[in-house]
Write a structure and sequence with these properties.
Elements: E1 2-7, E2 12-20, H1 33-39, H2 43-47, H3 52-65, E3 75-77, H4 81-93, E4 104-107, H5 108-115, H6 129-137, H7 148-164, E5 173-176, H8 196-206, E6 210-213, H9 246-251, H10 257-261, H11 279-283, H12 290-295
Helix pairs in contact: 6-7
């Protein structure tokens, strides 16, 4: 779990303020050879690390020590997988609601896509987001692109460059509990477990909260508030799946370990609340087709992310 701090007013990377901790997995505590080679992390570092609840408490204390107040900072991520998928899943494993600080973030890939001349992001040289952005801005990437500490440091350099060029870097993604796109039946790819984009389509149905685009300027009143139900994190918990994916589970040959570990495959009783049309939801400009969002360029090279 790695954080690099940048002061956006002074456009200054705070080298004196970094958070860097390994997290010991509980479900799969032994690194595969592939993961070890990819990230450069060794098994001993994992064996001696604390589990996530301990590391998260350390992170919260680190925020307090450096006087990071809610609503005064936001996370810059390469895409939406870091928070929507990884963080949400982790807190579901702990049976805890997503904290307010993780309910919104900046997807820097989207920023870059809009800044590239004629939005020609796909044709930039390089295969990954790091390759494309470093080549375009001539920013050297130091380290391992699949190591979160090295990636965090690079994202800070890229954010600084965008700010130096007088570009706006602000919240452009939020989590919400309900979207119209999940009402459209999904034909599950039989090979979804080993096909990245197919897996993302399944996960966007299974996970209670979905990433949505922010079309308007993000204000204090929007902070941590679900754009659908208009409730804060204590009410919009994601514990009870508002759009339970019955049709997805019906197509799975065997139970999903992903869903079972996070208690997402419970067959809830009662009528599906999705069947009730909500006029506000239908007319809400923020209710984008988030499955298209999962398929867009935001997901560059996420399948190898540590």
């Amino acid at each position: 779990m790695n954080v690099t701090v940048i002061n956006i007013r002074d456009k200054l990377i705070r080298e004196d303020q970094t958070f860097n901790r390994f997290v010991r997995p509980v479900i799969n505590p032994v690194l595969s050879d592939y993961c070890a080679r990819l990230t450069g992390i060794d098994q001993n570092s994992i064996n001696t690390a604390d589990v996530f609840p301990v590391v998260y408490d350390q992170f919260v204390e680190w925020l307090r020590e450096h006087n990071f107040q809610e609503k005064t900072f936001a996370f810059v991520c390469e895409d939406h997988q870091t928070i929507w998928l990884n963080a949400q899943y982790q807190f579901l494993l702990l049976d805890r609601s997503m904290p307010a600080i993780f309910r919104q973030w900046n997807n820097i890939t989207t920023v870059l896509q809009y800044l590239i001349p004629e939005r020609n992001y796909d044709n930039l040289p390089g295969e990954t987001f790091v390759d494309k952005s470093s080549n375009f801005y001539n920013i050297e990437f130091v380290g391992n692109s699949h190591n979160s500490m090295d990636k965090s440091s690079y994202l800070a350099k890229l954010t600084k460059r965008l700010l130096d060029d007088n570009n706006l870097v602000t919240v452009n993604r939020v989590l919400r509990c309900n979207v119209n796109s999940r009402r459209v039946p999904l034909n599950v790819d039989p090979n979804w477990r080993t096909t990245f984009q197919s897996a993302m389509l399944v996960f966007v149905r299974m996970l209670p909260l979905v990433p949505a685009v922010v079309y308007t300027y993000f204000t204090d009143d929007d902070y941590a508030k679900c754009q659908y139900c208009k409730n804060g994190p204590n009410v919009c918990t994601g514990v009870v799946h508002e759009q339970f994916p019955y049709e997805v589970y019906e197509q799975l040959v065997e139970p999903s370990a992903f869903a079972s570990a996070a208690r997402l495959d419970i067959d809830f009783d009662g009528e599906d609340e999705d069947e009730v049309e909500d006029e506000e939801d239908v007319n809400d400009e923020n209710d984008v087709n988030d499955e298209n969002d999962v398929n867009d360029e935001d997901d560059v090279d996420d399948k190898d992310e540590d």
